[in-house]
Amino acid sequence: MIDRKRHKIVLYVLCGNFFNRNLAKDKKRRRIRAAYWSFTSESQTPSSYTMSPRKNSPPQKSIDKKRIADAVREILLAIGEDPDREGLRETPLRVAKMYQELFAGLHEDPALYTKKFFSENYNEIVLVRDISFSSICEHHLMPFIGRIHIGYIPDGRVIGLSKLARVIEVFSHRPQLQERLTEDIAELLFKELRAKAVAVVVEAEHTCMTLRGVKKPGALCVTSALRGGFLKHPSSRAEILALINKR
Questions:
Q1: 65-104, superfamily in CATH?
Q2: Digit-coded pLDDT (tens) for 15-31
Q3: Which of 6, 56, 209, 222 is deepest in the core (most CB within 10 A)?
Q4: Which residues participate in catalysis according to the annotation?
Q5: What global pTM score does this model have?
Q6: CA angle 242, 205, 50 (to 5 degrees)
Q7: Domain 108-245 belongs in CATH node 3.30.1130.10
């Protein structure tokens, strides 16, 4: 006859050994995985001008169009509409594609457009006025539209004028505040161009103020950010602002 008690003890020992071996393997796998991700995160440090993910949020390399479309469908239901009727049937996907375009700057580094310079012995103001732009205010997710003026005094090297517009495009294609947009552009250009001075002035009309709430069309918000000589020297500041305001 089989000794049932002894048989159970043998089974417990065998199962315990099997479990312990697998537990040790799992711990080893976790250590290897942690070391790998630690190495890759350190070796692929993004520019400080890329948007940081929210705390405790999963990493996301692209815009989740399906998630946006599902959310838009829920909004249509919440306002009492029928998302399945002909005119709205494809609206969620259209909105998702629109957001993919409007927020493309979240996944792009504007510093990539400031790597190409030209040596030039020019020490006066370079000004590009009236660069049109549009962005989305992060408070109501409504557009603000206007013009940006960028001026700088080079220190032995200049940048292609189109690259200034490229920088604006990246920064503006994010959920934004006009104040932050102005500061971000000035800070990046001052650092990357190593210019003697940088000035950025932004003029924009905010639809969250003109189409809703107080509804004041024509109201214009003006912000400025100065760096280097434009900030330190009143005469230089007066000169650049006069050039920007000259019509």
A1: GTP cyclohydrolase I, N-terminal domain (1.10.286.10)
A2: 455 445 554 555 555 56
A3: 209
A4: 137-140, 178, 206, 208
A5: 0.76
A6: 85
A7: yes
